[in-house]
Write a structure and sequence with these properties.
115 residues; mainly beta; 7-stranded mixed beta sheet; 4-stranded antiparallel beta sheet; 0% helix
Length: 115
Protein backbone atom coordinates (compact mmCIF):
# COMPACT_ATOMS: atom_id res chain seq x y z
CA UNK A 1 0.00 0.00 0.00
CA UNK A 2 1.36 3.39 -0.96
CA UNK A 3 -0.14 6.84 -0.50
CA UNK A 4 1.71 9.83 -1.90
CA UNK A 5 0.50 13.33 -1.15
CA UNK A 6 1.42 16.38 -3.21
CA UNK A 7 0.34 19.94 -3.82
CA UNK A 8 1.35 21.60 -0.58
CA UNK A 9 3.22 24.85 -0.37
CA UNK A 10 3.18 28.43 0.84
CA UNK A 11 0.01 30.41 0.25
CA UNK A 12 -1.26 33.75 1.47
CA UNK A 13 -4.32 34.00 3.72
CA UNK A 14 -7.46 33.84 1.62
CA UNK A 15 -5.72 31.80 -1.06
CA UNK A 16 -6.36 28.32 -2.38
CA UNK A 17 -4.48 25.06 -2.81
CA UNK A 18 -5.41 21.69 -4.23
CA UNK A 19 -3.84 18.65 -2.63
CA UNK A 20 -3.63 15.26 -4.30
CA UNK A 21 -3.06 11.80 -2.90
CA UNK A 22 -2.06 9.08 -5.36
CA UNK A 23 -2.82 5.60 -4.10
CA UNK A 24 -1.50 2.21 -5.13
CA UNK A 25 -1.28 -1.33 -3.85
CA UNK A 26 -4.96 -1.85 -3.18
CA UNK A 27 -8.29 -1.60 -4.96
CA UNK A 28 -8.73 2.14 -4.54
CA UNK A 29 -12.32 2.26 -5.77
CA UNK A 30 -13.44 -0.03 -2.99
CA UNK A 31 -12.39 2.02 0.00
CA UNK A 32 -13.28 5.07 2.00
CA UNK A 33 -10.52 7.69 1.88
CA UNK A 34 -9.81 10.55 4.22
CA UNK A 35 -7.58 13.54 4.76
CA UNK A 36 -6.08 14.45 8.13
CA UNK A 37 -3.80 17.23 9.21
CA UNK A 38 -1.35 17.86 12.01
CA UNK A 39 -0.33 21.35 13.02
CA UNK A 40 2.87 22.00 14.97
CA UNK A 41 2.43 20.97 18.58
CA UNK A 42 -1.05 19.61 18.02
CA UNK A 43 -2.62 16.21 17.56
CA UNK A 44 -3.53 14.88 14.14
CA UNK A 45 -7.14 15.70 13.28
CA UNK A 46 -9.65 14.62 10.67
CA UNK A 47 -10.20 17.08 7.85
CA UNK A 48 -12.58 15.26 5.49
CA UNK A 49 -13.62 11.83 4.26
CA UNK A 50 -15.24 10.41 1.14
CA UNK A 51 -16.97 7.12 0.44
CA UNK A 52 -15.66 4.64 -2.10
CA UNK A 53 -17.81 5.84 -5.00
CA UNK A 54 -17.62 9.46 -3.95
CA UNK A 55 -21.30 9.77 -3.20
CA UNK A 56 -20.95 10.88 0.39
CA UNK A 57 -18.51 13.19 2.09
CA UNK A 58 -17.98 14.49 5.59
CA UNK A 59 -15.97 17.38 6.98
CA UNK A 60 -14.71 18.68 10.26
CA UNK A 61 -16.78 21.66 11.32
CA UNK A 62 -13.97 24.18 10.88
CA UNK A 63 -13.47 23.10 7.23
CA UNK A 64 -17.08 23.01 6.10
CA UNK A 65 -17.73 25.42 3.26
CA UNK A 66 -14.01 26.02 2.64
CA UNK A 67 -12.62 22.56 1.82
CA UNK A 68 -13.90 20.06 -0.73
CA UNK A 69 -12.84 16.43 -0.91
CA UNK A 70 -13.25 14.51 -4.15
CA UNK A 71 -11.82 11.44 -5.86
CA UNK A 72 -11.11 10.06 -9.28
CA UNK A 73 -11.28 6.28 -9.12
CA UNK A 74 -9.93 5.99 -12.66
CA UNK A 75 -6.76 7.75 -11.51
CA UNK A 76 -6.60 6.19 -8.03
CA UNK A 77 -6.40 9.68 -6.60
CA UNK A 78 -8.18 11.61 -3.89
CA UNK A 79 -8.11 15.39 -3.80
CA UNK A 80 -8.60 18.14 -1.25
CA UNK A 81 -9.52 21.56 -2.61
CA UNK A 82 -8.82 24.17 0.04
CA UNK A 83 -10.20 27.68 -0.36
CA UNK A 84 -10.25 30.75 1.89
CA UNK A 85 -7.20 29.47 3.68
CA UNK A 86 -6.34 30.81 7.11
CA UNK A 87 -3.07 30.86 9.04
CA UNK A 88 -4.55 28.26 11.38
CA UNK A 89 -4.80 25.85 8.43
CA UNK A 90 -1.01 25.60 8.47
CA UNK A 91 -0.20 21.92 8.96
CA UNK A 92 1.09 18.77 7.38
CA UNK A 93 -1.78 17.16 5.47
CA UNK A 94 -2.01 13.38 5.22
CA UNK A 95 -4.25 11.01 3.39
CA UNK A 96 -5.33 7.77 4.99
CA UNK A 97 -6.99 4.48 4.13
CA UNK A 98 -7.98 1.68 6.46
CA UNK A 99 -7.54 -1.82 5.07
CA UNK A 100 -8.33 -4.99 7.00
CA UNK A 101 -8.49 -2.97 10.21
CA UNK A 102 -5.11 -1.32 9.71
CA UNK A 103 -4.62 2.38 8.95
CA UNK A 104 -2.19 3.35 6.22
CA UNK A 105 -0.82 6.86 5.92
CA UNK A 106 1.14 8.82 3.40
CA UNK A 107 4.17 10.88 4.39
CA UNK A 108 2.21 14.11 4.15
CA UNK A 109 2.50 17.42 2.38
CA UNK A 110 3.16 20.70 4.17
CA UNK A 111 0.75 23.58 3.79
CA UNK A 112 1.86 26.95 5.13
CA UNK A 113 -0.59 29.85 5.17
CA UNK A 114 1.24 33.09 5.79
CA UNK A 115 1.60 36.59 4.44
Amino acid sequence: VQLVESGGGLVQPGGSLRLSCAASGFTFSGYYMSWYRQAPGKERELVAGITSAGGNTNYADSMKGRFTISRDNAKNTVYLQMDSLKPEDTAVYYCRVTLWGMAYWGKGTLVTVSS
